[in-house]
Amino acid sequence: MRIIAPSFEILDEINGEEMLKKIERIGRVCYKSEARITEDSAAKFITNIIQSGHGSVLEHEKISVRIICDRGVTHEIVRHRIASYSQESTRYCNYANEKFGSELTFIKPLFWAEDSEEYKCWKETMQKIEDAYNYLMERGAKPQEARSILPNSLKTEIIVTMNLREWRHFFQLRTSHRSHPQMREVACAILEEFQKRIPVVFDDIKYE
Predict the structure, then answer these.
(1) For the segment 12-53, what is each residue's pLDDT rounded down to a tens digit?
(2) How many other CB atoms are found less than 10 A from the CB of residue 23?
(3) Which end of the chain is less packed: N or C, by CB atoms within 10 Å?
């Protein structure tokens, strides 16, 4: 049994300044104001676009992210409609196989300290699930049958592709304190990286 922290990887080579310039060139078609484009006009234009609610212009740029998290979190991620998803399949992945180290991998819950009784209970339960999964596979069960005992804490991998407008919506919902703690853990980390790489587009989304 392995226990790991959630993580993510941005799959695109991001040039934030060029993204802004492309969005400005496209957005100014709406107003036929292309003549006002200068070397440094994109940031102000996109700030105004966001403030005015003209978010459709942001849909012309997209980003793909590989997210490693628990399956419970992915159940929330895939509720976002305007996106493309490719996710590790428990129907076809045989975790008793050497390819997976012949073990299950679980995402560590951030809300319990490792020396707490709650964490001890969780860890012992995950071990029992791994033992039962391997037993079923040894008995000839198919992965799609044995998966019926797998928990939300199971590690999964999902590729998420959204346009910038939908990423904004995703962060506005999923970095909120009303969001599930493990969903928020992933979303805040991705937002922080987006804010470093892409000027203006995500600067107004605050989290603590």
Answers:
(1) 999 999 999 999 999 999 999 999 999 999 999 999 999 998
(2) 22
(3) C
